[in-house]
Specification:
Blueprint lengths: L1 H41 L11 H4 L11 H16 L2 H9 L9 H4 L10 H25 L4 H4 L19 H16 L4 H17 L5 H19 L2 H17 L11
Length: 261
């Protein structure tokens, strides 16, 4: 009997150890999955920027009050644009409603309708945009300026994907000018055309009645700050050098020396 009790005791202890080891393995597995999920969710955040937005937000003066004479002048400008905009102008503004680096291919020198294979450039542009969007959002949340058509009911926006969003600074203008500045570093031969395209890309938001002129101007100011900050990051320069080689080859341009990291 004593021997049997000792055997049962050893079996009981073995079961406890087995259950403990199973629990530890399950816990380790759960922690591994949680860690992997956290890495997946945050892998592309702040690739080239720090994510600290205070200095960026401090760039901007407060927009004029909704009932001010200055805002009234900007609203009247938008009403004038609405009165004179053509169907072709509306179509062009709608075509530019999405932030997409392909909208700058013509300014880079590609033929209309061309669809070059530029995976490195596309990935770079996505990382840049994902990086700076929280900065623009922080500024918008700081000033909380309403869209023009929310102040002036006679304005009829020609796009509808901005409802409920804030106005100042313009994220669309920020995107256009950031792309122009950074693409201009890759293909300096096209800098003039790229900046002209950014002006047009940004102004489309006025044509559609969804941004004040001062929103656009603030977007350009912010883009200059962001492009400088992004370009100062060695990781960005490494990725940009690879995208530059790819882009210049597609444009049949002479190779350009890589920029120092």
């Amino acid at each position: 009997m004593a021997r049997g009790r000792r055997t049962l005791a050893r079996l009981g202890a073995a079961r406890v150890r087995f259950r403990t080891s199973r629990f530890a393995a399950a816990l380790l597995f759960a922690l591994t999955i949680a860690g992997a999920a956290n890495w997946w969710l945050h892998r592309d955040q702040h690739t080239y920027l720090t994510g600290i937005t205070e200095d960026f937000v401090a760039l901007f003066p407060a927009p004029t009050p909704a009932d001010s004479a200055a805002t009234r002048r900007e609203l009247d400008e938008l009403l004038d644009l609405q009165m004179t905009r053509t169907a072709a102008a509306v179509a062009a503004a709608r075509a530019d409603r999405k932030t997409n680096v392909q909208r700058f291919y013509g300014a880079l020198g590609f033929a209309a309708g061309a669809d070059p294979d530029l995976p490195l450039l596309l990935a770079l542009s996505r990382r840049v945009e994902n990086d700076f969007r929280p900065y623009v959002r922080a500024a918008k949340d700081r000033f909380r300026r309403l869209r023009p058509y929310e102040i002036e009911p006679r304005l009829e926006p020609c796009i509808d994907d901005v409802r409920g969003d804030l106005s100042y600074p313009s994220g669309h203008a920020t995107y256009g000018y950031v792309m122009a500045y950074l693409l201009g570093e890759l293909v300096p031969e096209r800098s003039t055309e790229l900046l002209a395209r950014a002006d047009e890309f940004a102004r489309q938001r006025m044509v559609c009645g969804v941004h004040f002129r001062s929103d656009i101007e603030a977007g350009r100011t912010g883009a200059h700050w962001l492009a400088f900050a992004i370009d100062s990051d060695p990781g960005y320069r490494l990725d940009a050098n690879a995208a530059m080689a790819e882009l210049r080859a597609a444009l049949h341009l002479a190779p350009k020396a890589p920029r120092p990291l």
